[in-house]
């Protein structure tokens, strides 16, 4: 008799209901995330299971499951099917014959071998075979079988989602610079720990040759306090933050550096020098982009403008959109999808964001904005969720799969970006576009790692500019 069954309840078989020879089975296919979850749960990070490069050089030539992943499936049968709830494990022996590889389909079969009336113990044969019928695991289990009937509704467990670690997502941004030479970068007023550490970490990653611009005594004292190595790093000694901003911009204007980074000074203190008549203006409106790796979103997400333009006009937004599209091209996104955000999806004359969105779409149709696919107005949910867009009857190639989110004004953009960073565990990089050189512009609260991620984007931009000059 086969007692295998699947429904919305878990129901046991009591000692008296089970006869010698009765069986139950479970079939399960090994997925990559099963290996990762087992490693997280158990702490077993043996590289044979979690390091593909190492595993390739092992005797099995690929990642394999932990042996006890299969053993746990036997426990699943005993605890949920046969005998089921009320079962107490007494003893288990296992012999492992073959590895389990990703994609293998295991059939777990448990068979009652012996019963002991005096103490309600049972001995069960346990066998796991793969899709080819080969024995993978075999053994016996001794259990104390339940004597009372139990039927319970299956527990509604919380959803478990695996996501790459922050370090892995941070590394993805750094990997964009693979094969690119370091660039000279001026760091304006790096007199707090994170801005100085960020500059030196970017140096150690091979991204930049840092030019530290600020009071030399403060920089050296901070480096000594934090245990940071300044050997071989150029310092431009200036008395205060205003002089640091002016000098850093001057270095860029004189082509001594190819990018800037904001240190321990306010955004407007650096940007005032950038937008000055003798600063780093071009024919474009200067704007800012947050490039975000959000673990619950399947692609990099760009948010603009959340740091420079306070109340952008329609004309300003043309530049903001084009700047973001051009950055997307540099990042190998050939035709970025641009969502023009508002509170609603329809044009409302009383809501300027919806009017601007409609105008921008038509300007793209007429070739006044090029290189991307625009749609709007779109509410935020429709921009990032295909389900939300379909529910509202929105037919759009942008809805649900936006690469670029264009916000109405700085408050909404700044709050959106920081919500994703602090509540959704996004890894963020911040960069200023439209100036003669890329400018790393992050919050003073941002970590050194965030500054390095932003620097990676600046390096890619600087090399794209070099390539354009040579073309």
Q: Tell me the span between the first and last alpha carbons.
A: 76 Å
Return the structural class: alpha/beta
Report strand order across the widest sheet.
10-9-8-11-18-17-12-13-16-14-15
What is the 3D form? Answer: elongated
Helix content class: 25-40%
Count of domains: 2
Radius of gyration from the alpha-carbon trace, in angstroms? 30 Å
Give me a quick take on this structure.
This protein is of the alpha/beta class and 471 residues long. It is 35% helix and 23% strand.
Structure explained in plain terms:
The protein has 471 residues and is an alpha/beta fold. It has 2 domains: 145 residues, Hotdog Thioesterase (Thiol Ester Dehydrase, Chain A), CATH 3.10.129.10; 305 residues, Isopropylmalate Dehydrogenase. Helix content is 35%, strand content 23%. It is built from 15 helices and 18 strands. The strands form 3 sheets. Strands 10-9-8-11-18-17-12-13-16-14-15 form an 11-stranded mixed β-sheet, sandwiched between helices. A hairpin with a 5-residue loop joins strand 17 and strand 18. Helix 5 packs parallel to helix 15.
Notable traits:
2 domains; 11-stranded mixed β-sheet; Thiol Ester Dehydrase, Chain A; 5-stranded antiparallel β-sheet; Isopropylmalate Dehydrogenase; elongated
List the helices and strands and how they pair.
Elements: E1 9-11, E2 23-29, H1 32-42, H2 47-50, H3 52-56, H4 67-80, E3 88-96, E4 105-116, E5 121-129, E6 135-144, E7 151-153, H5 166-175, E8 183-188, H6 193-204, E9 208-214, H7 216-226, E10 234-237, H8 241-253, E11 259-262, H9 267-274, E12 287-293, E13 301-304, H10 314-330, E14 337-341, H11 352-365, E15 373-378, H12 380-384, H13 386-391, E16 404-406, H14 410-423, E17 427-433, E18 439-440, H15 448-470
Parallel strand pairs: 8-9, 8-11, 9-10, 11-18, 13-16, 14-15, 14-16
Antiparallel strand pairs: 1-7, 2-4, 3-6, 4-5, 5-6, 12-13, 12-17, 17-18
Helix pairs in contact: 5-15, 6-15, 8-9
């Amino acid at each position: 008799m086969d007692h295998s069954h699947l429904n919305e309840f878990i129901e046991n078989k009591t000692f008296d209901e089970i006869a010698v020879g009765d069986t139950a089975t479970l079939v399960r296919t090994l997925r990559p995330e099963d290996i990762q979850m087992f490693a997280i749960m158990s702490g077993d990070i043996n590289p044979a299971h979690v390091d593909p490069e190492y595993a390739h050089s092992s005797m099995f030539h690929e990642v394999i499951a932990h042996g006890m992943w299969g053993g746990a499936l036997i426990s699943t049968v005993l605890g949920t099917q046969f005998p089921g709830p009320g079962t107490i494990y007494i003893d288990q022996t296992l012999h492992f014959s073959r590895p389990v590889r990703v994609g293998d389909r295991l059939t777990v079969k448990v068979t009652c071998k012996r019963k002991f009336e005096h103490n309600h113990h049972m001995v069960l044969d346990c066998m796991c075979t793969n899709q080819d019928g080969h024995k993978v695991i075999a053994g016996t289990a001794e259990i104390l079988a339940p004597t009372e009937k139990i039927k319970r509704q299956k527990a509604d467990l919380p959803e478990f989602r695996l996501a790459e670690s922050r370090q892995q997502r941070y590394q993805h941004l750094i990997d964009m610079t693979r094969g690119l030479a370091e660039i000279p970068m001026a760091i304006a007023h790096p007199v707090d720990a994170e801005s100085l550490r960020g500059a030196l970490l970017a140096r150690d990653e091979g991204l930049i040759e840092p030019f530290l611009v600020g009071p030399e005594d403060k920089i050296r004292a901070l480096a000594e306090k934090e245990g940071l190595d300044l050997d071989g790093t150029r310092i431009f000694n200036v008395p205060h933050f205003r002089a640091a901003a002016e000098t850093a911009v001057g270095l860029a204007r004189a082509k001594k550096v190819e990018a800037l980074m904001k240190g321990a000074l306010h955004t407007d203190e650096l940007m005032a020098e950038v937008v000055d008549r003798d600063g780093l203006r071009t024919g474009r409106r200067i704007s800012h982009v947050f490039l975000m790796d959000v673990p619950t979103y399947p692609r990099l997400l760009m948010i603009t403008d959340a740091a420079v333009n306070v109340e952008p006009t329609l004309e300003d937004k043309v530049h903001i959109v084009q700047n973001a599209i051009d950055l997307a091209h540099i990042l190998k996104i050939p035709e970025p999808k641009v969502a023009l955000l508002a509170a609603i999806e329809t044009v409302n004359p009383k809501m300027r964001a919806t009017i601007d969105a409609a105008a921008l779409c038509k300007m793209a149709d007429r070739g006044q904005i090029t290189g991307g696919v625009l749609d709007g107005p779109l509410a935020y949910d429709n921009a990032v969720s295909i389900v939300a867009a379909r529910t509202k009857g929105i037919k759009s190639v942008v809805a649900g799969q936006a690469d670029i989110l264009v916000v109405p004004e700085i408050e909404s953009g700044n709050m959106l970006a920081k919500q994703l960073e602090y509540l959704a565990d996004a890894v963020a990089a911040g960069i200023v576009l439209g100036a003669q050189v890329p400018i790393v512009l992050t919050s003073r609260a941002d970590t050194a790692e965030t500054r390095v991620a932003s620097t990676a984007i600046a390096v890619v931009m600087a090399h794209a500019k070099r390539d354009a000059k040579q073309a």
